[in-house]
Queue: 4 jobs
Job 1
Amino acid sequence: MDFIFLTQVGGILKPFAWVMGEILSAIYKLCSLVGFANIALCIVIFTIVVKMLMLPLTIKQQKFSKVSAKMNPELQALQKKYANADRRNQAVMAKMQQEQQDIYRKYGSSPFGGCLPLLITLPILFALYRVIYAVPAYVDDVNAMYKSVSDAIINEYDSTEDFDYMDALEEFYKKQGVTPRTKASKAENDTDRVIDILSVFNTETWQAFRDGEQILDKDDNPDEEYKNWNAMVSTPEYAQIMDKQSDNIDEILGINSLFGKFNILDSPGFHFPAILLPILAALLQFLQGQISMSVNKSKDSQKNDDPMGGSMKTMNTVMPIMSGVICVMLPIGVGIYWVANSVVTIVQQLAINHHLNKIDIDDMIEENAKKQREKYEKMGVVANGNTTSNIAKSSTKAISNMKTSEIKTKAPVISQEARDEAVNAEKGSISSIANILKERNKEK
């Protein structure tokens, strides 16, 4: 029986989760000071804070989307131009790649321009989920509440030889259908292991735990499959523990409550009004997708066939429905995060788009191109007036004079000897292509 909950997340996500945990802990303490110690409220505030910290990445991503919307029609036209080109003809492929690079350079962009913000954002989001799922691992005040119950059980039953209290808890949570989060290595101590079990209890599970009733078989006899649990709850000490920890358990239920009625660890199911949360999450995600698509469209792209746009439209319709269905089965706390995240994202998208609409797209493109030139200069790519574009053009000068009709034919006008040399070359360097062209010019 191995648990991850209180060992916190490790690996590459560990530093991100630690920062997220510190933020959530500070928010909880602040809410406690003003008399609103509630994890549901903390999740909402936590989401807003994290989204605001990620705002620079969001702006960068939205700027890239704006530029891409204007650039994509040219890329699509280039793809159509070379749709029937012979992919084995390295000269033609070099020309296509050069034209593609010229388009990206013209707009001060790159094929991977939108990847960097995403690569930075993903570990933050993954860490954020882990922190929300593991609140007692990162918020000391919440941990102390669970630790009080855990220590009471361990101190009372740690030395008994009649049963194993850890096996008893395992039998109980299996019967209740509760699944603590697991991993290969054990938590550092039994206290954390017990807290891990307690921290995933929803309202009904806590009630069954406090009642401490034996689990019976079909003949109303103590079920042997749950012998450790039945033995533990049969002791008079168990009722005393639950009585002494009653106020503490009520406090745990209180901080995990939503509107004083729902527990954030409960699943909404299809019961009213809890079902409204998955519906709201799906609707807001759909609205978020529609706004995102409107931001990423340009007048030119709307006039052209855009397979990628069609795929995105389908995804933005299907994904919210799937999210709504999944949200029905997940804890309410996850649904709260999804709703809060969608609301903040929509507000940010509208605000950023309103700001970007005041900026001329051509000015934005020129600024991007300038930054790219400066980046190349720092890297030493630009020297003595020879940019990467000029170098490539000088090496493929003859190719640039090819007509579209020549590109679409799958029989390039070069000698058989030169063609064999191109096929045998490993992926064809610039120099090998130049040698082929030189040979062809001699034959002419």
Job 2
Amino acid sequence: MPFRTSKTKVYQYDIVVKGSRFRGSCGTEDFEEAKAVEAQVRAEAKTRSGNSGSCTLSEALGTYHRDKMIGTSSERTNASMCRAILKHMDGQKPISRITDADVMRYVSRDRASCKNATVNRRLQMLGRALRHMARFYKADAPTLELKAAETKEPKEIVRELSTTEQARLFEHLPQEFHAFVSFALMTGARIHTISTLLWTDIDLPNREITFRLKGDDMMIFPINAELSALLSTLPRSNVLANRDLVFTRVDQQTGDRVMIQPNGGVFGTIWRKALRNAGITAFRFHDLRHTFATRMLRRTQNLKLVSKLLGHQNIETTMKYAHVLIDDLRLAMDDFSVFGVGPKDAKPSKAKAR
């Protein structure tokens, strides 16, 4: 494992591979990055020693993280998934010896403390890491039934914010966060996408925003007059490191405008308090995305268009909003009659017994 000495905060590595010792600096103060560097050194050492086909689970995850995730918007999430997997699986075990039984034991342990969807995302990442090692480092990666090991996820509930709830929410939400929440309602963007949005992502003359999505994909979102007006009123941060961020908040201790953390933090506390004071229950920030989608679908009646605006890879993901179309079809049928007349009451009356 990487280590630090009293003389420097930068992590060092000191490993032995096939009787040869390798020592040096990882070149970083971040432990996860240091592990990836150490894993890369070990992998390269094994390649030189003619033993490139063997690597441990910890090395595989560290190498994948270093090669594919560092510098991306998903870096922190991926590092967290690596830690979660290594908490329940033996990191020193060669990946060639990992079995489906090992995977199922991991699933049963991890599922006890988190949602099925979270376990499934971690399994998918494990699969990507193993395939990466096999493809680029010629490691002996096993063929595992990772898809079969995934657990059934509950059907996602589409929670839409009503207009009266929206008014109450903004009434109890501090003014400095109004633009942040309004932007979510106007675009349906995820909280991480909004909190990391940069001014360089916004092209007002061409009325376009570049959104960075999950999996490091990108999409172009159109700017309408309402969005343009909102963006033009946003203040720039007085902190050089945060000046590129579109959305910031005021640190009450320093007065500086700092990043709005997407998970927990100050905004998370304020958000939950505003919901509680507004009497809004069973509602998450992600439900602002659902609200945008249902409102847009209700207005346009175009499922494909909404799918594009949400950045979905396939329209099947957008089908959870199809209930909006069914509701509108039902209303249309209520006003339709073949003979021009017909009962408007859907409840049939009981005929009197003779």
Job 3
Amino acid sequence: MNSDFLKNFRYTPDGSASPADALCDFIKCEIAEGRLKAGETLPAIKDIAEATGTTFRIARGVVERLAREKYVRSRPRVGTVVLSRNACALHGRVLFVLPDVDACSYHATMIADALRKSLGDAGYAFSTVVFSRDRQIGLSFLKHELVRTPDVAIAIYSTKPVRKCLREAGVKSVFIYGDEPTKDEGLWIRFSAEEAIANFVQHCVRLGVKRVMQVRFDGNETPDAGKALAEKGIKSGWMTVPRMDELGRYEGIERSAYNVFLDMPRQDFPDVFLFWDDFVAQGALTAFLGRGLKIPGDVKVVALSNRGLGPVYSEALTRFECDASETGEKVAAYVLARLAKGRMPPPPVIAPRYVFGRTMPY
């Protein structure tokens, strides 16, 4: 088998997928789109490794995985043979698109993993492409992937240039988070914290809270509990933590929040801090510990948190908890319903749960 097709393989070490996942997804796409036909043989493992810049161990693992999932079969004295598309129940290809600044985030990675599993089990090849906000690099990787038109693209935290690129390529698109797209751009899966905010406000009323301070980092779009609090006579305001991008996206946010809350006068503290970002919360909590403050004795804290990976603190956080794996499963079910072209369910709404902890006791 000629290994020329492997020259189209691209891998960027951005954390959104491992080299093995990326290579496996690439070969599945080649099969799905007919460039690797039933009966053809894959190159030798050492040739795959050399052509793709991976290791022999990674290439061997990918071939073994393809065999387990019935995309290929090893035949003595013949090699690794591509099976028919019917044999591997391959129905098409789904592309997951995300920005480089979020490619290493726990939340986006868990959504991608859940999508890959659910869609893969349903017979769809799944691949990830990262777009850069750098004007010199821009959308080059995305445009390269769109040459091989996927059945659907799922974009998270998309930008207007990304939506335009997908629209011009004629790709059906589903968008997670971000601004609502226009009707001709695709379908939007909305994030709503309304129910969690209502539960938070009820909690504040029960505890006699008089003032809440909502906190975000500069440039972060967040929900707003202000109106719901005002309806119950509770005052609220906003703090915006500046970013220190020179330290990196996440470390810079955490360090900046640490500096802000280490120096914040005690007389400026509200009854409750509501942190709409887990890295801001982590920096603030570290500063509070450094100042010898007691939570919830000196101040009560509620924070946005990922299920399985929230801010680290000595007490369980009261939190708006997001379940990224559940989000990925909901999105996958919705996409599969669209691809089946049957009766369409309404788009799912992604919502955090309000979970009681010790930083704002029940």
Job 4
Amino acid sequence: MVRIKPFKGIRPPKELASEVASRPYDVLNSAEAKAEASERSLLHIIKPEIDFEPIADEHSQEVYDKAVENFRKWQDEGWLQQDGDEYYYIYAQTMDGRTQYGLAMCCHFEDYLSGAIKKHELTRPDKEEDRMKHVFNQHANIEPVFFAYPDNEEIDAIVSKIVNEQPADYDFTAEDGFGHHFWVIRDADVNRRITEIFAEIPALYVADGHHRTAAAARVGQALAAKNPNHTGDEEYCFFLAVTFPASQLKIIDYNRVVKDLNGMTPTEFLRALESDFTVEKVGEEIYTPSALHNFSMYLEGEWYNLTAKEGTYDDTDPIGVLDVTVLSNLVLDKLLGIADLRTSKRIDFVGGIRGLGELKRRVDSGEMKAAFALYPVSMKQLIDIADTGNIMPPKTTWFEPKLRSGVVIHSFRE
């Protein structure tokens, strides 16, 4: 069972929502953020290194201090304003004609520690520490994490009623073509009922934002330890999430490019693949994997259809069934000698949102030697892994569209 609560959201006035809201901190580098940031963009708060000339070290204390300064300025200028009462919020996103409807809420850090909020990835200590400092310095969750919950018909009905009967507080299309729609749930009885329903939901699942979730939990623990009168109801115990019904979410492919063939010629490499795969050359036209255990490979200007042979994977194992596992075991480790995906400099990862043309480009440029495209992981696979306490291999899931940062913020500053 999970514990959630409404909150007094800090958010932009309607006329500024599309300008203030930005892409999240981890999908663009500092130079890209500097080029993209308008005067009121939240990028000045979540990537404040862009306000220095030249761009400063994002982990320096002056940058953390600048984030606090900018957050205060945005509120002083009225570019961010706090609601007077505690609400839940509906945050919907539209991509390729498909809309997913999430609830912006506050979740309790103890649910993460107890496992009621379930993860499927490991976190890197350096990234976790960086996010922790941002949250601690701001005393706010500037960017939400992205959760999923098991479908619930009553929640669906509540959301549908509000969306169909109440004008959206925000409704804009970002520069990437994705639509963002936002409603404040002002009915106190409805807010109370949402809290009650989620108290009966067995678990939430981290879809995107493992580092932010872990960082928020660390902040909650630290502030609880400093408070001799801690009760567990304090605002610092809660952090911001947008939580979607699992059935509405779509995971797209997360692909791999490698710098070399481990001393093999292309002909030798193709021959080595045949021990575990059925290999078919398909030509210069891009080939997209069609099913689980089917891969596409781009090598020497040609696309190949690779299908793993029976007996080379374990569909009864929540980790063994994953195509990232199959590729890692049979190709990256066995043939190319790339055993540790987290540390190897011979491999890189390309989110499917960039398209398979990006794989071709990186190989054709000479930067990479070969590329592999994978069939996307399903939400069922993700939930099975989280429920069994397993951890996915690195760079397995890519969720799209990303939540915009700055649509709503949670503060726990007294």
